[in-house]
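Reopening this one. Same input as before:
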Amino acid sequence: MLADIESAREFIHLEYYIWSADTIGTIMAELLMAKARAGLDVRILYDAVGSWGLSKRYVRELQEAGVQIFQFQRVRFPYFADRLNYRNHRKIAVIDGIIGHMGGMNVADKYMDGDPKLGSWYDSQLRLVGPSVAAMHLIFINDWDFVTHYAHPFEFHRVEYPNTPENVAVQVAASGPETNWATIMQAYFTAIAKARHHIYICSPYFVPDESILTALRTASLSGVEVRILLPAKSDSRFVHWATRSYIQTLLDAEIQVYLFQGGFNHSKTVMIDSTCCTIGSANMDIRSFEDNFEVVALVYDSALTQEMEADFLVQLERSQRVSPIAWRERGFPDRFKDAVASLFSPLF
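Same output, byte for byte:
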């Protein structure tokens, strides 16, 4: 992505949940300021809660260099209760309207170097070139206009897309509390319901709604192989307990559950029958389906899906498969924590 930003000629539009002023954040800032001074249109949206620690000095230096940067849903009293719950969890980068990046990675060192407590960090990121980038850009512009109240509009112009050796069908789906349609959840539900052979899911936080849980259970009981990769340890203790509270229900439906042991896998991916896959910011949880602003790419390509499935199977080799018998015989403290977390899981 840094190379694409370096090669930008007209504009750079970025939208991230977490933006940190660490090593990678400093590298990004210096590059973006240089581009802004060179006359490019550089815009940044960062979530006020996800990027809570971003200093005013860091933001001011960007602004003084010509970068337009705004917070998404700044939290202030007395609006704390209204705004804290609806966060912009999207990760979007659009360069010149031609190249787009999206996935699970934010702008912070841990996405490259790992976490001191969790170990190595694994994630999935997608680079798009072509008309699908226009859909990503439209999502960014809508969020930008929402935050700035149309005070800093962007003038669209015709984009000439480069010729590519192969065309791949891509849908970009967005969802958030501003719409009555749970677009991403419905996309996941449809993909799961249409599966005939196998379903592979990787999600760092797994708190599904009843529709997704029923779809997965039904698929498994109908003979579809369902494998779900979850973290053995997490960066969110309470969400981790809530995730674990669903494991018994999954095992009862003969769904294979694996706990990743090689660090922390933050990827948010779904693979169906070696024919289609999804990559994006949305976790397999209620918050991503209903409360957060999210974006996901649905890619209808066997080659990419098979590549992702091969990587998924490699990750399973570094994971421990959950034994139904051992899980049922867990100690009381673990069962109690999971039971308590399940009561509050819709809030996570």
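So the earlier flakiness isn't reproducible anymore. For the record, Residues 2-148 form a domain with the Endonuclease; Chain A fold (CATH 3.30.870.10).
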